[in-house]
Each structure stands twice: as C-alpha cells, then as structure tokens.
Write a structure and sequence with these properties.
This protein is α+β, with helices and mostly antiparallel strands. 38% of the residues lie in helices and 21% in strands. The longest helix has 34 residues. The protein binds one RNA strand through helix 3 and helix 4.
RNA sequence: GGAGGGUUCGCCUAGUGGCCGAUGGCGGCGGUCUUGAAAACCGCUAUGGGGCGCGAGCUUCAUCGUGGGUUCGAAUCCCACACCCUCCGCCA
C-alpha cells in the first residue's frame, strides 16, 4: 500500500504520479474516505475517553449508571459509523497501486513498453522451424493431449529428455543464484489470505487465483508470495539486510481473462515451475538491486545462448505492487517475435507495508524495500527448443545444463513407455 | 478424525469484572562506582493510529491469539474460530 500519511501531506504529487497509471480518481476517492474516517475517529475517541474516565475508581451509583448507559449507546453508534468509514477507506487503499518510478516507461499498454537493448543473433533456418509442441509432441516429450484429458486445457506433461532438461535448467539457475548470495528455499505453495493481500495479488488478481475453499487457502501463482511472507510481521536487524532468497516452486494460475491467448503448447499453462528471486533491502538500495536482478537474468539468458531484448514496461501495464518492471523477452523463431521469459519488479515498500516487514534504522523502525524477479521457467526451455533445433527435429541443449543432468540433445532417445 | 493442555509487551512469567497498558525476572540501553571491566546499585526499555505543534514534544485511542457477545465498565465472563503442544487413530 502507499504511504497515506505522506499522501495527505503532498496529495498533488501523489495524484500526479498515480495519474500516470490511471489511478488518480481512485486516489481522490481514497483521500475523501480518509478525511471522513479521521473526523469520525476523533468523535468516537473523545466519547471513549470520557467513558474510560468514568469507569475509573469506585463503582458508580444507580443514577450515574443511567447516565453512563446513554454514553455507552452514543459511543456504540459512533463506533459503527467509524468502522464503516474505516472499511471503506481500507477497501480503497487496498486497490491503490504503487507509485510508479519516474524512470518507468510512459503509457497504458503493452505496446508502450520501451526496448532498452537487444542481445544475441536471431537464428536463420534452412528449413521451416518447428515450435516446441511440434518438436516434442509427436514423439511424446511434451504431451498436452493427455494433460487435457487428465486436467483440462492448459496442462502439460513433460517427459523424458524434456523433463530432464527442464529440471537441469532450474538446478542450473538455483546454483547460479546461490553463487551470487541467494539462499535457496523450497517454500509452501498454499498460502492464506493475509499473504495474498500482502503481496498485492488480492484484491485485484482474485479471478486469477485458485482457492481451496474448504481450507481457506490459495494456491500461489509464484513463490514470491511465500518468499515475501517469510518475514511477515518481523522486525529485521539492519545487519540481516540485504536478504536474498531463491525459491523454487510449482505455480498455479487460472489464466482468467487469457481465454484464446497463447492457447497452443505450454507457453501459458495453469501449472508451471519456476525459480524465483526475492530481495529484501534498505529503502535507498532498491533501485540498485533492481538493476542487479535484471543483470542476473541477462547473465542466465546469455549462458543459455538465447537471443533476447530487455523491456522497460509501461506504467499502465505494471502489476499493482510494482513501481517499475523489466521483462526479458527471448526470440521465438516460429512465432517470429520476442516473448517474455523473465520479469523483475521493484515493489519498493508496497509489499513491506502490507506485510508489516520493518527494520530498525537510524530513525527508528522503517519499512524495508522488496523486489522480485524470475530466475527461470519452462519458457526458457521452449525458447531453447525453438532456437537450437535442427532439421531432424532434435535440439542441442546448452552446454551449461549438462552439468546438471540434462542430455546433450533432446530427441535422440525414445521417450519410452509414455509413447 | 478423537481426547486433553496452551496462546499476555524481544524471551520467560503474574494477573478470575473497575485501583491493569498490564506484575516480576532475563535480555537490551543509559548512569553511579572502577585505571578498565565484572559485580552491585539506580533509571529507561512494546507497537500502531488520530489530534495539536515549525520542532523537542504534548494529548488521545487501539492492541493480552482472531472474530463476535454479555456489561455502565472485560486480559479477566460467554460463544465461535485459528494456531501450537501431548496422547490415540489414520496416512505419505
């Protein structure tokens, strides 16, 4: 959430910043609700103070009790008004997105994002290249049909060489991040409402979440939730920062609103695995760490040999918690375009405020800043398959993955019984 | 799933309707003493919100697992729920 006290003090600056992402009207509604809440709070508190003063000391006599009963009734109705106003204020506050970073790209849509740079050679093929599904499906390395039979659309079996290569990719990235100071974590994938709100997936992303109603738990769409929740309500010592975590989880997304989008193959599925970076740092350091997360993502893409470009995402296309976001888009030869394979966001103090993660600094307790970024998902594997295929339909696996159990080539051996 | 025990201010703990925002100890911080340190002694030691003030600050409300209820008044009584521990059952 945003810093409401700061917003009261300089509403024009907040309104202007939020207007860049189309949230100026919501902000004004919030300020009005806040004003009302403060008025009602003052009134209720004054009554409560009077009641507390009256209930000190010896028990009151009968005529005094009649008086106090009236006061009690008055207080009760004042408190109802106050809590109604508070609920309205909280609901509005929960929907206000983070203040965008001045250097985040202008614009409201995906098309407004800025290309910062490109890397690598776009491959040219002497044959018609096949996408990952065409490469994998006929011989059983990627099986969407059986996935659909089991679980419905957008579920994939990855089998044999593809399974091993994918696992190697995650292990490679986890190792890479560990060598850069990240602590590897295997966190829970079921999380309660508090963590979902705290990370900003609720209330705005509710339709995209799987909810286990019987248990009041959500399936997380990213380990960001669990890594952000790991220090919920904690007071971090300054020497604990920066804290860098590398999580690995299976992730679940309903992909509501994505109907008809990326329906082919396993580019957009309901269940996928991911190595995620998550950083806690001091307020002054988050811009620098954002650049670092991007640099790590680029190093990984380069180690895999994937041609890519770096995008500065337009403010209107940011998730609510993000102040600024970079995407890396790899070249997909069959689609003939760059597609997102990783993403990293600076969420400044937005999640830390909601999750109540603070540190003891020079001026007392202050909220930390947090950042998140993709280490790797299977999308990198799809890019590998498309970019490094040969005419016979086999794929040369990047050498760096060999150390982690990947076969040198995908498609040389039979996938075995799954066929 | 069943039975029992528990949840209080960093940790441990006292507290069964008004004198409790809350006892005591540990830890931490400051001071006295000391060449320095330890010990001893003295003091301070939660968080969040609102109002006032340029500010140091003053003031007020909330918070004793969470949410409801009873009452003029709740850490304390009642109800529901959550979590933790022990035992039994079941299962990976």
């Amino acid at each position: 959430m945003i810093d409401l006290r700061a917003a009261r003090q300089d509403p024009d600056a907040f309104r202007a910043a939020l207007a860049r992402r189309g949230a100026a009207a919501d902000f004004d509604a919030l300020l009005a609700a806040d004003f009302r809440w403060r008025e009602l709070t003052e009134r209720a508190e004054a009554l409560r103070a009077e009641q507390r003063r009256s209930s000190k000391g010896a028990p009151p006599g009968p005529e005094r009790i009649a008086e106090l009963r009236r006061l009690s009734d008055e207080l009760a109705s004042a408190q109802v008004e106050q809590s109604d106003a508070e609920r309205e204020r909280q609901d509005l506050l929960a929907r206000i997105p983070n203040l965008p970073d001045p250097s985040a790209a202008d614009g409201m849509t995906e098309e407004d994002s800025q290309v910062l740079r490109t890397w690598g050679e776009i491959p040219s093929f002497a044959f018609v290249p096949r996408d990952a599904l065409d490469l994998g499906s006929p011989r059983g390395w990627i099986d969407m049909a059986r996935g659909a039979r089991l679980s419905g659309s957008r579920f994939a079996y990855r089998i044999g060489d593809v399974a091993l290569t994918e696992m190697a990719l995650y292990r490679f990235v986890l190792d890479f991040l560990a060598s850069r100071g990240f602590l590897p974590v295997l966190p829970p994938v079921l999380a309660g409402e508090r963590a979902m709100y705290g990370t900003g997936f609720l209330p705005t992303e509710e339709s995209n979440l799987y909810l286990l109603e019987r248990d009041g738990l959500y399936l997380t769409g990213t380990s960001e939730v669990a890594l952000a929740g790991i220090h919920m309500d904690e007071r971090l010592e300054e020497d604990q920062l920066p804290a860098l975590y590398a999580g690995f989880t299976t992730n679940f997304r309903r992909e509501a609103g994505a109907a008809g989008k990326d329906t082919r193959g396993m580019f957009r599925v309901h269940q996928f695995d991911k190595v995620e970076m998550y950083v806690y740092c001091r307020a002054g350091e988050s811009r620098e760490f954002h650049e670092r997360l991007l640099a790590y993502e680029e190093e990984i893409a380069q180690a895999l040999g994937l041609p890519y470009r770096v995008m500065n995402i337009a403010v209107g296309d940011l998730g609510a918690p993000a102040a600024k976001k970079y995407d890396i888009e790899a070249w997909f030869p069959v689609q003939g375009r760059y597609r997102e394979i990783t993403s990293c966001s600076n969420t400044t103090d937005y999640q830390a405020r909601r999750l109540n993660v603070r540190m003891r600094g020079e001026s007392g307790l202050e909220f930390v800043h947090t950042l998140n970024g993709t280490g790797a998902t299977a999308r990198a594997l799809l890019a590998i398959m498309e970019n490094f295929q040969d005419e016979g339909g086999t794929v040369a696996v990047p050498e760096v993955l060999g150390r982690f159990g990947a076969p040198g080539t995908i498609g040389r051996q039979s996938p075995g019984t799954a066929r």
